[in-house]
Structure formats: C-alpha cells, structure tokens
C-alpha cells in the first residue's frame, strides 16, 4: 500500500530519507488565492529544526525550504504545492558503528525485514526528518485555518516525572522545552540535560488545544474528528498513545461526572475534549499524546546484527535526548491538516446544496 | 465526506440507525474461497448483543444476522458480502421524554447541529447499534486471519478503580465483565451494579492482544499499523484514548529502559507494544483503550432543548451501565479489519513482484 | 482491491449477484434534508427493469426497491442510504445447459480464472442486475442535481446501422428503444426483433447530454470531469468505448475547426463536448458510448468447458437482444453520481474558505 | 478535491506548472529492490521531450530528470520516489500577446473560472509539461512490469485522414510520427507540416497494445481494467475518446460476430480488446484513443478577454502542430501505472491467503 499520502480532499504526500538528497511534501487540494510566502513556511520549520537548544540534537541543519510549485505572485493557485528542503549536514560516518546493527527500539529492524534494504547511513525514511514535509504542509493548513479563526497550539506538559501545573500558553515559545509552565520548564530542562549527559533519552507528554472549530466538523462513523486526529498524531515517530479530554481518567469516572452539562450559552465542563459522537461540539478540542524516549542512545544495549549475532549496541551520533520540544510543531501541523481536510469536506455538504 | 467506509483494499461500509429498519455492513475485497457460515458471524454478534447479563442493557435484541450476497455454497466468492440485522426491539416511546432535549455527553447535539435532522426515536447513527455491522465484518476478518495463525483477543482490565491484576485470557468469555482476572471480575460487577442502581454509568479500560502478525505489517509513514489501529479503535463510540505497549507510562521512562533489547531469538521485553517504526516487529501487538461512562443515565443533569432552553435531562430507557463488556467484540472486529487490510496490501508488494 | 465502491465524497457501494438473495447499494455522503421517497427511486428502476418491451428480456422482474436506512420523515438524514431489491424471478434451470461452460464473450471465464468460483446459476456479480444499485443511487443524485438545475438525459442514437438523425429529446421515454428520432425508432426496433428471432443480439450507441453544470466542475489533473465520467461509464457492463463532443472525428479536424470560438455570451460551437482542461466549460456536457451486442445468444458458438474441452455453446435463457434501452437509466445514474461527487468537492474549496 | 494523485496501492502524485520552477512526481507504493537508474527514466523522457523533430514544438527543452528520494545503491527502497525536472526554456514573453485573453479550445478559461488565478505566463498546470511527472513514474512502472513479461507499446495509427494500414511495431521509434506504417508515416508527416505552415494543428489517433497481462487483472465492478485505463488515458490533455477492441464498430456487429470464440488454447479473435467483465482475459489488451488538434495556433480565432470583451486571438509561441507523437510515451506511462496498481492489488488476494 502507498502509505505516504494522508487526507482525502486536502492531501499531503511526503517523500525523502534522512540521508538522501532532500525531504519534502506535495500538498494537494489547497484552496486558491491564499497568501503564502516562503517565510510563512520557514517560520514553522525553524521551530522544528535541529540545533535549537541544548535539549535538542546538536546537528545544525538550517533546513531552508523552497517552494517549487503551486504559488503565483505570492498566492496559492489551487494546484499542488511542492515544498522541499535539501539535506545538508548528513554525517553518515556517525553511523558506521551501527552499519550492520539493529538498534534496540529503532525501526531499522522492521524496515529491513519488510523491504530487504539496509540503508546504513541513518534512519532513512523512519527518520524524524520525514516530518519536515509535514511541518511545511501544516504551515499552509494553519494559514488557511487562521482565516476562519481556528488556532492550534501544542505544548509540552510533562517530561519524565515533571509536570506543568499551569497552562500559561503565552510562554510556550519562550522556553526551550516548549512547556506552558516556567517553573516546570527549569526542572524539565535539568532532567533532560542529566539524561543527555548519561547518554540516555527521556519520554514526555504533549498537549494540543484547538480553538474555533465550528460545531459538526468530523465525519461519522469512521472519520470522526477524534479518530482522524488519532490517526494523524499516532503516525508521528515515537508517539505511543493519545487521549482526548479526560482521556484514561474517564475509567475512574461516572457518567454523572464525565458528561458535560449544557446551558444556554455553552457547556459547563469539557471532559469530552471537544467532540461528541466524533464531531466537534464547539468547545476547544483538547488532546494529549505521549512520546517515548528516543532509541538512539549511547547507553550500551543488547542488540543483534543483520546476521542474527548478538551485539552490544551504542548509537553515537547527534540525537535528541527528548524529542518533545521539536514534536510540538509537527503535532500542530498534523492537526491542522486533519482540520482543513474535514472542514472542506463538511462544507461541501452544508454550503452548496443546502444554502443555495 | 463519506465517512462510513473504512479500509483500502479490504473495506467495510456500515449503514443503518438504531430506530430504522435495519443495520448492516458491506464487506468488500474479501478473498474468495474462505469458508463462511452464518454461524461464524452470529457467534460474534452474540458476544455483542444486548441483554446478555445484568451489567448490560436489559433490551433483549436477538440480533439475528442474515447474509445477502458474496457467499456461494458456504464459501466467499470474492465479491461484496452484505450482512444485515433487522431492528426489532425498538421502544421508541422510551425516548419521548428526551424528544426535544440534547442529552449531556450525547451526540444528539452535534448530529443536529451538523445535519439539521432530529431523529427523536433514539441515537440514530450514533447509536452503538451501528457497531453491529463492524462485528459482522470482523467475524470474517478473524476467520481470514486465523488461516494464517493470527489471533486477536480483547478483554476488560479496569472498571472504575478495579484493575485486573492477572492476565488469565482463558476465562474472559466465562465472566460477564469479560475481564481476565476472576477476583477483579467480582468487584467490577459489584461496582457496575451499584452504579446501575443509582441510574448512573461507569468507565473502563480494555486491552487487546494480537498474536502471530508477521514482521513488517504496516505502511510507513501515515498508514503505520499503530496509526491505523488507533483510527479504527477511536472510531468506536465512547472511546476516548488509546496507548500501545507501555503507553503513557513511557513519559516516565528513559530510553535505556523503554527500548526493547534484542537477542538471537527475539526481544527481551515488549515496551513498544509490538510495533517499531509503525510496522509489526513480530512480537505480540498490545494496546489499551478507555471507554467513557455512557451518556444515557437517569441521574438528572443540566441540558438544553432544541430551542436553547435550559432543561433537566433524565434519560430513561434501557441502557448499558458499562459498555466495556460489549465493546470487546467490537474492538476485536476493528483490529481484525485493519490487519487484513494491511496484510493484503503488504503482501501485494512482497509476493508477486519479488518472489516471482 | 475492493472495487465495489465508487466516488470520493459522495460514494456508492454496490453488492449482490444475479442469483443471490438481493442486489443493492449503500450511498454515503448524501447531503441531509433532501426529500426522497421510495417512488423517486422506483421510478428510475422501472426504466431499467426487465420485461418492459419486446426488445428487452422477457424476464418479468418487478424489481421493487426498499430503503433500509438514511431516511427519516421523508428526508435524507446525511447518513448512509441503503437501498435493496430482492431477486425473485431467477430461473436458474435456464443455466443448467451452460453450467460447466464458458460462454464466448462472457465474463464467466475471467471470474472463474480470478476467483476460482463457478456460480453456475447465472452471471453472478457480472450480471447487469448489479446495475440496480447504481440506478437507485443515481435516482438520489439526480434529485440532488435537480435542486441546482442540473439535468441529465441519455438516449439511444444508433442501433446497428440505424442512426437517429434528429435529437427530439421529448420523445425518448415514449418509444421502447429510448431513441430521440421516431423514424429511426421503427427501424431500430425491426432490426432488434429480427436479431432476436435469429437468437442473436445487436450493438448500439447511446448519447448523454448534461445541462446546467457550473463552469469549473472537475479536478485537474487526474480527476478531470471527462476522465471520471469515462471511468464511471466504462464500468457499466458491455460498454466498449466513450467519446466527448466531436470525439474520434477530431482526428480529421484541424485546430482552427475544432477549437470552439468564444463570444461575449458564450461559445459558437461545442466540439469539445463541454469540458476544457478537464473542467466543465459551462456548455452542455455531451458524450457518447458504445454497447457491444450481448454475449448470451442462442446462435451456436465455439467455447470451452471448465476443463478446457472444446464445446458448442448455446445460451438459452431470457436475455436482452439489445441492452441499450435499459442501459439508458444506468448511464444517467453513473453520470449523476460523478457530478454530485465533483460538485460537492469543488464547492468545498470555493464556498467555505473563499466566500467567508 | 485533491485531483493530482492517481492510483490506490501504487500511486503517482504530480506537481508543477509550465512556467514555475519545476515539474515532477512522487511515486509511492513502489516495490523495493527494483534496479532503477536515472537513465531508465531519462530514456522515456527523451521520447516525450519537445524539439525532437519538425513535427513537434521547436522549443528545445532538454528536460533532465533527477531522482531525489527512494533509491539507494541503484535500487528502489520501497519508499516514495520523487523525480523532478527543472523548467528551463520558458519564454514567457511569447505569452504577452495572450496575457489577458482566453484562447479558444484552451483550459485557461476554465482554470480562471474555477480558481480565480490568471497565470499569464503559459498553460500553467494545464500545460502538457505536467505529463513529465507521469512519464517518469511510467518508466518505473514499465520496469516493474517487464520483470513479469508485461510490455506496453503505443503508436500513432491515424493523423488527419491518413491511416496506418500495417502494424509494423518494430519501426515505431524509427519515424518521427511514431506510427507503425512507414508508407503512412510519410503522408502523415506531410500533412502535419502543411498544417504547421498554415499556423494550424491536426488531430490524430493512437493505439496501445499490452502483452502479457495475466488473466483476471481488474477489479469488478467499478475498478475494471478497461474503466481504470479509460480514467487514466482520458486524464491526458487533449484526449477526447477511447475505445477497446472493436470499439465503436461494435454498434454495427451482432453478438455472433463480436463475441470471441474460445478453443482449447485460447481465443479465435480479440474483438473485446482483451477484457471480459472488466478483467484481463489473457489476450492482448488493445485500445485506441483520439487526440484533438492542439488549441495553440496562429490562425486567427474569435475569443474573449478577462473582462468579456470579444477579441481576435492568435497564439504565437512554439507549439506542437500534432501532439500525438509526444503523447505516445505518456499513454504508455499511464497504462503502466494502472497495470502495476491493479496487479499488486490482485495478487494481494490471490497469493497470500490462497496459496499459503
């Protein structure tokens, strides 16, 4: 199956490997006449790029995007938008040590098993560099959504045992963790740096809030808003779980607590996380997802080589001790793509035939 | 968007509302020459049907399935299989009291907002009766998978605060909770009955284990095995979160703990839950999902009517105090559909072109 | 691949075989609040049904449709509409003579080769009865289109050597050939009856005209209006070719003749058949397709049996000597489905984001 | 709707406009371990490139392809293959004269009507340059098919009134018309040159023959082999009709003539063109399509400008007087893409589940 396209009416098709020539995306189905500059896209990419801070990989990739099609005189034309970033700072020699090894927790084992190809130069298609194309497309999605007053913001709420107690969304882009609680930020940073110095990595939880989604967005029964967002977010490397509203806590609740009461002007709570029956309820969409600790670490681990021999694996190279801060823009991007796709689909029904 | 079809090569299209004539499914892309009887399907439906026990709704719907196409002389023909159950025990009068009301936590508000239709007779398309079609299709999927030694089992692991400590999978179908720990079963049952007597409902967590999936199943980058399963499971009514392997606990772990070490004959742990890079690793696929407490309760709650007036809402009728035991076969069904779809797609590549 | 679903946002999924229990369709993505009665659908089915006249099969199947879902109080609800017709007048004994034979020109050879199943009772899924589901869905599509002033009409323009010289569209439903020229109708009828008496069948050409399609409908580059219509029409049994506007005659023309000149209020000709660059130009959409003579005839022909032995094949039974009159509503249906799908998709872009 | 992706399991997504930076394609779902070099692709592109001969446009675009992803050490990896050609010889000044004009028979009217964008520099997305991406993907498809012994060949059989009487397929690439009859080639060439000197263009018919397709390829009922090929071929710019086997001539035939008789070792004729019931019959697949005379001519024609004023339109620039010779590789490419997609899908069913 061709698994590199996502979406129905507004689609993204990503391409490229970590150590190939380039990575990018074709965005199709974009409405015409949307103002779009390279800067709009680059701004989002800069939030994702490596080398931003001491808690991300020291690889310094500038990741400069170029737009190859779909734009004329600063506006979208309605035709496919191809955006691409050349790979530059690929130190393949970093990978010589693991050339014949399968790294524990890494996709190189499954890629080799499925495709029979061993690209020893790096993560190949499983690399987080693939998400560059997603962020480019997401920049366009966010631009489109902003015209209708829809905003998406992701932020880190937990790193190891350290949780954000506050939701101060104004400071997210001002701290290197991209968390919403400055007190927690300090502890999270120390926790990550400590793991990094030990050659290890840490897990984290990211929350996403979407404001302004009109009531009814989402397509029963399979393309529910929450189901499509789950598909999109779970397709991001390292994500291992997702929950909406109260999420897993709902197991401990009774209906009389969990169900959000309604009054004339809205809801009295948002335990559902903004969806009812798979459609937006008009409340904020709120969900959380967990990212596992990255697999590329220098702590020695038991692994095997291509021939089945047991080996001790140490992954040198320049990897993220915590991927969460850089996953933030990727999560926003994927959420944006889902929303534009669903909103366009929904209005197809509502506007044309009904309001005519 | 047409949201009632799921899958790419092996697709299910469900139809029908709770108080319409019938509910059912068209399963397309099924391989030919698979032995399939009405009993194979009915057996799974019986696990889903109402009125099974004191912890499910007292509505006694026999839910007898009939197969209308795609079978000849007891075998599939490769053409679409239509399976349908007539709705019988629809006590619409139960709904008169909520005829003009939006029930808190219920999809009637979003359905009305999106479609402008008020089917006061019941849940309509948002009703759990829609999942009958899924279970029928899942019965076929499980039959196909069993030929290749793939098995899927779901079971309840938590109801309210009561957790299953054991994983005794042999007893799951022998207790009305469908849990894997007989000691816990008793407490869970008491907890549900107590809530039921109070006119309330409770949440729960279900775990699913899949054995025998070949390495490599899953299509990077968007149609990862875990992403498609998440899409499928999150599309089941009342599901609010899903996690694979260690799931959200991964936030507390380090890479050196979470990454599953490999030795000559396999893995030393399964923190990943059976996928690496979105493809099956050859280990068991393990995931969990949470179901919220049902919205139809008799505890009075604040709601509004169609005209925006504030009302006290009490949902009489015969509803499940805990949907988890009846969600078990639905989760197995959706997991089966995803797996057959992905395996067929995968082998398309592997077999024909490579091994020829 | 699951080939029984057609469309993207407005989809039809047909099911059923000629000698199974029933044939039908699930129509998904239908806008809500469209008035729809069983009569709206039955009316179209009656135009397709067997036994209408001496130029169609004498099988007298009433083909009574029932709607099982998606309608409430006489209106669509936006959820899947399932429509089904039970098979009644199946004289399987007619097929005993060809039980083990592959009929020349018939799909039983390829079905058996692909699926390994021999349903000796009749055409199975390749039977024209499969088109019943299409006509049901098309009835809904035409209803939707009529709200926007879009009309679709098909009619026979050639049977054997006899061509319609006129385009008198008002008389199409008043003659059993469904042609647009009463003089030609007589000759066509004689020609068909003569072939029928000889146990033979004849080919024909059908033209379709669509009025009122807004400029711009069609999605470059692959989902062009003409490409999707071609896909849809060529999927009808017995259709062997399609052409738009001047069609194959364009090979003989120069650009200065073929290109349609434009003036202030429109075009001076319609050689293109109503599309430019794959999008509707605002002119009438005009295309023609050819149906081959049916394969089920009593003229003895060389064929083989399941075991490869050469046999003389005579197909008794009650078959259409010319399928064209009964293909007319099927072609209208498929054209309608394509148009609703494309218009809904198109307006998704245009309305919501641009006009807001 | 996102219309720039074609295919289900083996997909192509094209991007780029005639006067943008580049045109290209992302090919997804390609099996791994297929040897593929830039030369394999370039060879096909050279057959499509402008400036080949006196019957094609004098624009001399070298159209050099580069592969950006999906290849490692000379073999496909199973991940998306991005191939791109930079636009070089864009003389936008040629278009100044038609800057505000809609050219009769040209897509600039519908593009402007739909998207509201006027890219006066040239054909934009409707330009035949878009087919560069298709030819690149087709080169890969043909490589894959050749491993299984499937070959595709297209050739011109009619230009204006001049028809190829012979089918000498060995000489097709040796004459500038790409016809299969050297005697006809001379007359066709003269006919095209004459039109070219008059500032005019001519139409033509192309035939395609596919050998070696296994019995059963094609997915009933909508994704029939002939229906998908029709979709693919009708999506090529300037194509106005398609027919299989005897095509429109079938209207004149009786069933006893048209139906292909079968004997022990095959068929006695191929009037059907190689499909029965929408699936390959094992015979050669044969179809023909017509290309209209190109719209860009210097013969003065009546047209309108952006504001509705009537104007005389003369399209200077360097255009093809007959597009057929350059459409030949595009038709082969699209046919190849359809076949790989269907074969991969088909074997999904046949191999894995049945032969295991």
TrEMBL record, chains A, B, C, D:
Enzyme class: lyase
Matches recorded under SUPFAM superfamilies: Chorismate synthase, AroC
GO molecular function, one term: FMN binding
Comment on bound cofactor: Reduced FMN (FMNH(2)).
UniProt KW keywords: Amino-acid biosynthesis, Aromatic amino acid biosynthesis, FAD, Flavoprotein, FMN, Lyase, NADP
GO CC, any one term: cytosol
Pathway: Metabolic intermediate biosynthesis; chorismate biosynthesis; chorismate from D-erythrose 4-phosphate and phosphoenolpyruvate: step 7/7
InterPro entries named in the record: Chorismate_synth, Chorismate_synth_AroC_sf, Chorismate_synthase_CS
Catalyzed reactions per annotation: 5-O-(1-carboxyvinyl)-3-phosphoshikimate = chorismate + phosphate
EC number: 4.2.3.5
Disordered: annotated span: 42-61
Entry-linked Pfam families: Chorismate_synt
Residues noted as binding NADP(+) in the record, renumbered to the chain: 48, 54
Superkingdom of the organism of origin: Bacteria
Cofactor: FMNH2
Any one of the GO BP annotations: amino acid biosynthetic process
Quaternary organization: Homotetramer.
NCBIfam families xrefs: aroC (TIGR00033), PRK05382.1 (NF003793)
Name of the protein described by the UniProt record: Chorismate synthase
Provenance organism: Denitrovibrio acetiphilus (strain DSM 12809 / NBRC 114555 / N2460)
Gene name for this UniProt entry: aroC
């Amino acid at each position: 199956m061709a698994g590199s396209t996502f979406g129905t009416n507004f689609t993204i098709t990503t391409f490229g490997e970590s150590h190939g020539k380039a990575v990018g995306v074709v965005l199709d189905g974009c409405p015409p006449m949307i103002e779009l500059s390279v800067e709009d896209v680059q701004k989002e990419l800069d939030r994702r790029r490596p080398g931003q801070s001491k808690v991300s990989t020291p690889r310094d990739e500038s990741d400069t995007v170029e737009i190859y099609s779909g734009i004329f005189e600063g506006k979208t034309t309605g035709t496919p938008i191809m955006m691409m970033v050349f790979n530059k700072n690929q130190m393949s020699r970093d990978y010589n040590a693991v050339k014949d090894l399968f790294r524990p927790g890494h996709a190189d084992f499954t890629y080799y098993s499925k495709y029979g190809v061993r690209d020893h130069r790096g993560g190949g298609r499983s690399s987080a560099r693939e998400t560059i194309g997603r962020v480019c497309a997401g920049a366009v999605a966010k631009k489109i959504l902003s015209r209708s007053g829809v905003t998406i913001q992701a932020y880190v709420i937990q790193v190891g045992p350290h949780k954000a107690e506050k939701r101060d969304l104004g400071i997210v882009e001002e701290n290197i963790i991209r968390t919403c609680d400055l007190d927690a930020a300090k502890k999270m940073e120390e926790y990550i740096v400590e793991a990094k110095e030990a050659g290890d990595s840490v897990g984290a939880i990211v929350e996403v809030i979407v404001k302004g989604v009109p009531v009814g967005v989402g397509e029963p029964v399979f393309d529910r808003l929450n189901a499509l967002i789950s598909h999109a977010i779970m397709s991001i490397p390292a994500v291992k779980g997702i929950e909406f509203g109260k999420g897993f806590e709902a197991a401990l609740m009774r209906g009389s607590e969990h169900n959000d009461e309604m009054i004339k002007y809205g809801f009295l709570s948002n335990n559902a996380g903004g969806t009812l029956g798979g459609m937006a309820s008009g409340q904020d969409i709120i969900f959380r997802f967990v990212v596992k600790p990255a697999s590329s670490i220098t702590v020695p681990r038991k692994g095997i080589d291509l021939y089945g021999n047991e080996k001790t694996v140490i992954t040198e190279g320049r990897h993220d001790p915590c991927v969460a801060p850089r996953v933030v823009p990727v999560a926003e991007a994927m959420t944006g793509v889902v929303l534009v796709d669903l909103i366009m689909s929904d209005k197809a029904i509502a506007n044309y035939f009904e309001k005519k």
